[in-house]
Amino acid sequence: MINIVITILLFNVLIVLFKLFAKLKIDNLQALTINYLTVAFFCFLYSDKKMTLTEIVNEEWFYYSIILGFLFISTFYFFAYSSQKTGVAVTTISNKVSVIIPVAFALVLYPTSNISIVKFFGFFLAIIGIYFSVFSNNISIKKKYVWIILFIFFGQGILDVIFNHVVQTFLKKISFYFLTILFINAFCFGVFFVLMRHFNNVASIKLNNLFFGIIFALPNLFSIIYFIKALNELNSAVVYSIVNVGIVVTTSLIGVLFYNEKLTKTNWLGIIISSLAICLLI
């Protein structure tokens, strides 16, 4: 359980950094792209073996790493875009409620006798709690942006399913070489998006974006390491549920305590339901 707690805390560090990025007008996509390169570099240093290109391509997880690399950067890219076009609330709901996809797949593909009726009820409360925690009365979606919301929902869900499949099937311990290849792929796709925006005059490339991307890399790397440890330690359906609910609850409280953000009665109800869900899932 300590790995889940550390994962949630590190995700909160990342969210605080994102808030700092917004304040300093850092381009999220550029920072995240260089972050992936930095993470890949550190993973390579910690790899316990060096592999040739042929050996890498022949690894069973290689093609999964390409798909995951694309989903890592593209889901985030559209998350940021949707936040601007449809609002943070509806984007966050789409992103976090997608947890039902990996949870459902985990229960079917990796069944365990440890999942009781109480935990099933906890999964149900987790979804309700997430929804209410970020709900806003101002939610509205223009038809032309519906596809983005659907992409975030299914993109994040599919990403979690594939990542969990790789961990359950191939990574019974942390494989820094897999993470190296995964994040190199994410970096390559990120470079494509950055250059596309640069040449379309959407955002110019600036050094300060790259600097903060390097800072972002360290907590990002360790959040993934401890998340993988949690997936190897507990039932993955439980891990995904607790982590997603825990992130929503803690970020909401951080917003209230440190950023003077206001929560509605519905949001507080969501936090209470989410807390109950965590108690049932533990």
What is the topological layout?
Elements: H1 2-24, H2 28-46, H3 53-58, H4 62-85, H5 88-97, H6 100-109, H7 117-134, H8 146-170, H9 176-199, H10 207-233, H11 236-258, H12 265-281
Description:
The protein has 282 residues and is mostly helical. It has one domain. Helix content is 80%, strand content 0%. It has twelve helices and no strands. The model has no long low-confidence stretch (mean pLDDT 87).
Give the proportion of residues in helices.
over 70%
Sheet with most strands: none
Number of helices: 12
Principal-axis shape equals globular
H/E topology pattern: HHHHHHHHHHHH
What's the oligomerization state? single chain
Number of domains: 1
> What is the radius of gyration?
19 Å
Give the structural class.
Answer: mainly alpha
As a percent range, the share of strand residues is under 5%
Counting DSSP E segments of at least 2 residues, the number of strands comes to 0
Give the overall average pLDDT: 87
What is the CA-CA span between the terminal residues? Answer: 8 Å
List segments where confidence is low: pLDDT < 50 over at least 5 consecutive residues. Answer: none
